[in-house]
């Protein structure tokens, strides 16, 4: 975005000190443990997975109105919700599974009326049906795929987790609400999950980023035609991942790759550094 068109929220996002970069854990399975995130957030004040708000702000403002009731899940130490707030989106419930992350949010939200922090498992949300207009997440769903060995045929445990998260986002959205997911996961792999039976939204996406494109998915409830559900079995022809990861954060790459044992982790680290 050109500097002369940036909003005050955008400028504040860019002027903050740069996010901290953490070493990835020794094993990707750690990303699935709440204890890993609690320990991490003890030391990490601010970190943005993938990209910060300034890179996809134009897409957020296209899909979220100032009056919308917004739920962010898996927010961690990101400033996404505060950046949206500074852009006039004033009713935001910002959640994470990590107690430490939520304590930090509460401290930061003290002077931001309308911003609420709450501990919440995105697989079992403590909110009423149809209580939000927008659910948004960045990088949290990708964590659920971290032990997926084969993107073409996700293990039942992985599929169960992802379906559980989608069912919960769908449940808490109003009948025309939108689920926004900002992710590495490619459309070909995500569509069978997004458009599975029981979910009434259809998948649309835009991309952002420089060398590597990140995906900004929008799933509007009630937009799927009858009989258009997908299944995991419908995934047929492998696509090239086509990633250029020389500028990618090593943690982003770890989440994206879907490889799970430690030797593979070492290979990925080398690939990131080369
Ligand atoms: C990759 S980080 C993304 C953080 C942040 N959204 C960002 O963009 O920087 C994943 C986040 O998901 C949270 N998380 C993991 N499992 C979760 C669950 N079941 N429910 C809610 N949050 C979860 C972690 O605590 C962590 O904050």
In short:
GO terms for molecular function: S-adenosylmethionine-dependent methyltransferase activity. It contains ten helices and seven strands.
Please outline the helices and strands:
Layout lengths: L7 H8 L18 H10 L13 H7 L5 E4 L7 H7 L4 E6 L2 H10 L6 E5 L12 E7 L1 H5 L11 H17 E11 L3 H8 L7 E7 L5 E7 L29 H8 L4 H12 L1
Parallel strand pairs: 1-2, 1-4, 2-3, 4-5
Antiparallel strand pairs: 5-7, 6-7
Helix pairs in contact: 1-4, 9-10
The structure holds S-adenosylmethionine.
Family: Belongs to the methyltransferase superfamily.
Protein name: EEF1A lysine methyltransferase 4
GO molecular function, one term: S-adenosylmethionine-dependent methyltransferase activity
General description of the model:
With 274 residues, the chain is of the alpha/beta class. The chain has a single domain, classed as Rossmann fold, CATH 3.40.50.150. It is 34% helix and 17% strand. It contains ten helices and seven strands. Strands 3-2-1-4-5-7-6 form a seven-stranded mixed sheet, with helices on both faces. α5 links the parallel β2 and β3. α9 packs across α10. S-adenosylmethionine binds next to α6. The site of S-adenosylmethionine has 20 residues, from α6.
